[in-house]
Amino acid sequence: MLLEVKNLNTYYGDSHVLQDMSLSVNDGEIVALLGRNGMGKSTTLKSIIGLVKPKSGKVIYQGKDLTGGHPFKVVREGIGYVPEDRRIFPNLSVFDNLKMGIKSGKAGQKASKSQWDLDRIYKHFPVLKERSAQRGSTLSGGEQQMLAIGRTLMGSPDLLLVDEPTEGLSPHFVKEVRDVLEEINKAGVSILLVEHNLKVAMSLANRVYLMGKAHLGFSGTVEELNDNPEIRAKYLEV
Ligand SMILES: Nc1ncnc2c1ncn2[C@@H]1O[C@H](COP(=O)(O)OP(=O)(O)OP(=O)(O)O)[C@@H](O)[C@H]1O
Ligand SMILES: [Mg+2]
To answer: Fewer CB within a 10 Å sphere, N or C end of the chain?
Structure first.
């Protein structure tokens, strides 16, 4: 098992937003984490990467306990995080944005299964090569999403946490982003994907977790979810 999240309890003040949340990602998998607004999907990713500290529970990655670790350390262990708001540097060029994704100081860093550099990123994201001299702020939403993913890949993660990558994108870019995630996965990167677009999630994922308010509601394969309209109605359809 690559990632094991066990019984996480996370609070914002008095608000208990993750209640015994558990999930796992096996090596090579794409796992989707789905659910309605405000259930705690982003908080689950933030609790894994270390942006919020869980009060209890465990985050075990490649057998190592990373619970509550600083994001910098968690990233160095080989987990990449693409946040919902993308965090592009608007005044830097695409090229410089990508360079920001290189982890500083190789010492103490584990070798990843899937090594990425600029050439490889440009091969997978030709649009970033075309626009390499352009400022981040001049990219379309879809291009910015590609840049956010590409920049995170520059750190050569073994596991990518991606929060709502297709949100607000045109149908063209929804497909582009979907396809690029599939390619990255085929190249050896495991993915934990939070996604509102059910079609995208179901077409990519091996397994699915559905969140109810603050807790896990369902876990199973894509086929099991397909065959279970009651579960979909309970946790997904509004
Ligand atoms: N920084 C914060 N401070 C206080 N409450 C927060 C904070 N961030 C999120 N919350 C609350 O925690 C709960 C879970 O939020 P979270 O962002 O994890 O949900 P989500 O499933 O990602 O939702 P969405 O689909 O809308 O992105 C929500 O009730 C939200 O209002
Ligand atoms: Mg969210």
So the answer is: C
